[in-house]
Structures are given as C-alpha cells and as structure tokens.
Amino acid sequence: MTIQAKRSVTIEDVAQHAGVSRAAVSKVIRDAYGVSDEMRAKVQSAITELDYRPRVAARAMRGASYTLGVEIPSILNQFFPKVINGATRSLTGSPYQLIVAPAVPEDDGFRAIEALADRQVDGLVTITRVPVAWLETLGKQLPLVTIGRHYASVNFDTIVGDDLTGAELAVGHLYDLGHRRIVHITLAESSDAVGAGGPHHVRAEGFRRAVERRGMTPEVVLVEPRQDAATEAARDLLDTADGPVGIFVAHDELALGVLETVAELGLTPGQASVVGYDDIDLAAHPLISLTSINQSGTQMGVIAVRLLLERIAGRTEPVHEVVAPRVMARRSSAAPQQRPHRSADARP
Amino acid sequence: MTIQAKRSVTIEDVAQHAGVSRAAVSKVIRDAYGVSDEMRAKVQSAITELDYRPRVAARAMRGASYTLGVEIPSILNQFFPKVINGATRSLTGSPYQLIVAPAVPEDDGFRAIEALADRQVDGLVTITRVPVAWLETLGKQLPLVTIGRHYASVNFDTIVGDDLTGAELAVGHLYDLGHRRIVHITLAESSDAVGAGGPHHVRAEGFRRAVERRGMTPEVVLVEPRQDAATEAARDLLDTADGPVGIFVAHDELALGVLETVAELGLTPGQASVVGYDDIDLAAHPLISLTSINQSGTQMGVIAVRLLLERIAGRTEPVHEVVAPRVMARRSSAAPQQRPHRSADARP
DNA sequence: TTGAAAGCGATACCAG
DNA sequence: CTGGTATCGCTTTCAA
What we know:
CATH superfamily of the largest domain in chain A: Response regulator
Largest interface: A-B, 61 and 61 residues
Distance between the termini of chain A: 70 Å
Number of strands of chain A: 12
Radius of gyration of chain A: 26 Å
Largest sheet of chain A: 6 strands, parallel
Strand order of the largest sheet of chain A: 2-1-3-4-5-11
Number of helices of chain A: 12
Strand content of chain A: 15-25%
Shape of chain A: elongated
Oligomer: homodimer
CATH topology of the largest domain in chain A: Rossmann fold
Number of domains of chain A: 3
C-alpha cells in the first residue's frame, strides 16, 4: 500500500498511463461535465494503479482547495471540540476536508484566521472574538460563518444560541427552586472584545433582565478567562455570603471551577446552587451533576458545515440560525438551604 | 484594517510598489541570503502598505507550506487537546502554523493523514493507529513524528510514554494500598490495530507482568472504545464482585465512565479503587479526584514540534523520546474495604 | 546584490 | 466529447 512514489505522481503521469490528456483526467477527478463512461473508466483505473493523489496546493492555485477551516479560541474548553466533532462527522464522504487552527488565547484568533485564509480554505467557521468589521471584509472574500455571535451580517452566516432566553432559563430555574439571591459569574469585558454581540455579553444582559423582572438586584462578578479565576471568584463570593446563593456561571468550564470551591468549602447544593452553560458531556457525570443550559455544540458544527457548503454551491443571501437552549436540571442546583451560623472568625 | 483587496495582493504588486523585482520580494519575506538593508526596508514598507500576505498554495508549489499538521484520533478525549495546546503554544512567533485534522474513529485516521499530506504540510505528527508500514513510507516523504507508539523507526521520530513502567506504577499503587484483586479495563484489540506497539497494548502487557510479579492472577476486560462501554464493563465487574477490587483503566476518559458506575452503585473507593491514565485536568477536580498516571500531553506536543523543526532544519537520524510517567494519587483509590454482605438477589 | 525567466501541478477556456 | 495551452502566485536558478 504505497502512499506516493518518491517523486509524487502527477496528473500528467495519470494522463500518459491512461493515454488521455491532462484535461480529461482533471475532469474525471472533479467529476465535471463532459466525459464518456469509457474515458472515466480508463482514467479511474489509471488513478488507482498509480495511486494518484491530487496536490491540493496546485488545485488551490486555480480552483478550490476542498478544505474547510475552523478556528477555535481554546481547544481546552470542551464545548469547542464538540463543534468540531459535529462538523467533521458531517463531512465524511464529501470531498471536503476539515482543518482546525487553534488560536492561542492571547492573540484573539487573528493569527489562526489569517492562517486559514492564507491557506485558501473554501469556507471558514470562526468562534472567536475578532472585531466585526474585520469579519465583514473577510466575509466578502469567502464563505464564512460565525458561531456564537449575535450580529446579522449580510456578508456572512451566523449560528447562535438564544443566549437571552438561556439566561432567562437559568435564572428562572434558580428562582423557581426558591433562590432570592442570584449571582452571575462571567468573563471580564476585556476578554470579550466582540462587543455587544458576544455570547457572554448577551447572557449577562439576559441575566440582568431576568433578575430584575423578578424584583431582585443583579449581581455580576467579572473574572479573567483563566482556569482558576472562577474558583477564586467563587471563594470570595461564598466566603462572605451568609445566606444561600444561586450562581449562574457563563460557561461550564468556569462552572467546574465554581463547583471546585463549593466542594472545598463543603457547601450543599442548597447553600450554593450552580448553573452552568453549554452542557458539556461532563456535566451529566454523576460525580459532577452540573445543572446547565444545553445548546448543542455538535448540532452547531453540523449546521456550520451545511451553511458553508450551501454558500460554496452558490447561495448569496445570508442565513442566521438560532439554536434553542434548554435547562438540564441536575444536582448542583437545589432548593435554598440556610448555612449554619458562622462564628466571628471568617477566616483570619 | 483591510485583510486583502478584492483581488488579492500578489508578490508582483509588492514588487512594483517597491520598484524592485518579484525575486527580491520573495527573498525578503523568507529572509533569505542576499538582500541589502535598503532593499529590505523598501520591500517591508511596501508589504505593510499593501497589507500583502503570501498565498500558501503558491508557496507550497515550489517551496514550503510553512504548515505543520497534527492528526488526532478523537478530539473528544481530553488528552489530545493538551498535546495540541502544547504544540500550538511552542509555535507562536515562528513562521509555521499548526493545523489539526481530526479523524473520525471509524476510519482510523487514514483520511486525516492523507488530507494533511495532500496539503503538503512540512511536517506531520500522528497519534493514531495506522499500520506501521504505511508510516514508514510516509516518513520517507516528510518529517514525521508519532506519539504513543512503541516502535523505533529509522524513517521517523517517536515520542512515547513509558507505558510499561506506567502500568507497573498503577498496579504497584493499588497493591501497596492493600489490594489483592486488580483488574485491567482496556480497549478491545480490534480498536488498537497498531499491533504490539500501541500504548494500550503495552500498558496491558505491563499490567500482566506487574500483577504476576506480585503473585496475583491478571484479569483483563476488553471494551469497545465507546463512551459508555467502560461504564457497562465496570457494572458487570462490580455487580459480580464480592470483595474489594482495584481497577486499572487504560485511559482517563474511560476511567470517568468507571467512576460513573462506582458512584451509581454507591461504592466507596475502598470497595472499588480506580486508577486511570493520562492525568487529564479533570482528574484533579475535587469532585472527581481520580488517581491517574501522569504523562504530560502538553510536553509531548512541545517535543513533537521541536523534533519536526529539527527535521526540517536538516536532521536525518531518527530520535526516539521517552516520557516518564508518575503516579498522581487521589481519592479514587484507597485501602481495600469489605463490601457488606449482599442478599441473594443480585439484580433480577 | 539584483532581476529575468523557467517552472511547480493543477484547472479552465476554447478550438477541433 | 476531447485535448492543447494559457495561467494561477510564488520560488529558484542563473546571468548580469
């Protein structure tokens, strides 16, 4: 099973072997219009015999690269791999291949997106927080779809969860359990340079509305997007809290950090109820059992690929898909429960 | 901040703008030998003004693609994202860009690897279970490094954890706690077509040796690589077990499934002690607290990039790196504890 | 040190 | 339906 000969097999070699022209071979491999069955058969067998594989670089020079790119902000947040998984799977059997360019959190994905564009992907999905003006320009150049951005461009497609409703669901869930103090832990503004369209920004807005609608006062804690930032923020919060508190966290990865603190302080779900967002697989694990707002990353990945392929096939009007969120109630949230009275020494 | 003009800026445009030849521009962007400072300055400013970005496809036709590819078997197993993260980070500031091609478990990574090769990556790291003969061929064509494969090729570099020792550590840990029945849950042979060189194969071998050396009988349970397979296997095992049992699981993702069962059956760590492998971040979470064998994925990613860049720079002798494992003892494993006598009805 | 010109391996137009 | 040929944007000799 040879992969390629020393000096790789070119379309010319195939043409000679089959006794036809390069143009003919080219048509066959793209199964373009205008080839007889006989010709197709000859060429196909030559391709098989020589184990010919077209060089993508050469194809990209004139036509397509048959490559779709995905740029993700952090591969360590388990939500994003789900998106990729959905996208990858819905591409099996198609001539397109998915490649992922992971961004390093520091550069906001600029580099990754440019790298993908430089590689002439035929379509690009981005999940990061680059300025919208930049995306408008990019969207004019190639099929583009953003995930998680609330913004209706005419130059590209978008997929978003309904974060306003998601936040409402989270707050409603805690409120209905009986909680009357509900705090939102979310990412610091600086880390969400997307502006008003970022998912966390919208969730925070939804949080405020939902809380005020119920006659409570919104409390929002901003944290840096580091792994342990949520842990610390939760510690500050819970160290000083007297009564039960409901905590709505911007995403599950951060919520895991909050659960860490809750566990370390030995608090019950009634004393500190936690609701996350994304419903990563782990949330359902019995040892974690994190109540979360589900928005299917897998489904988003599938949709993204579909939108891209539609654009490639010729669609020009923008499409904006909205994915409905739903509450997955688990044991991390429960009816409020008073904490035993603390003595005066609240940690020296 | 324009990305590209409508019709993208070419090296020719830059050359004209700077009043020099295309060749000169080419030399500057690769900072190749033989350009005066003055020329360099002129060209640089032209590049900046026009916001020129070289097209990778065109570069790849003659020279390099400045792209390193990583193929991973499953993006849902948290160990692999760590490898990618390590690799990505150690590439910041270099002219090389990392792209990831996720394999769908069904095709064993063939498609992903070929896709990467077709895109003329300058180097390739693979973590999957394709036949070694295939890799030998591939390794002759481009810089290649495998992760997790115990096999010393002359055609490519390798990075492996010392899985034999890792298994010994796991068994030793359980034995020292007092366990005298130790079971290994690992992936079914079919899913590890790598043959004798696969990490799980070697861990299983290490398990057998370690257990026999201590005078016990090796028990190995094979499961399919599905999320819930380990959960079911553990249920079968623990439903029929009377005494305490130590369970050494092939990797953490599966171990999480085992912990699920342990939790559902309400068993204590003493009754069912679990040890995983990989030490994914989550293992340290207080709600999980999974004892695991650490082999730094991040470090492996960093090494992989280094090896590839060395090869690209001209090295030809193969290098085989071994990463030492160590036990991270946590609460999922504990000294054996008898289970209360069960009544006769062991699930109807 | 610089630039002119010859490819790299495909695609696409257009004539036969 | 088939094939000759110009062309994509860059790198790389090789002369000047």
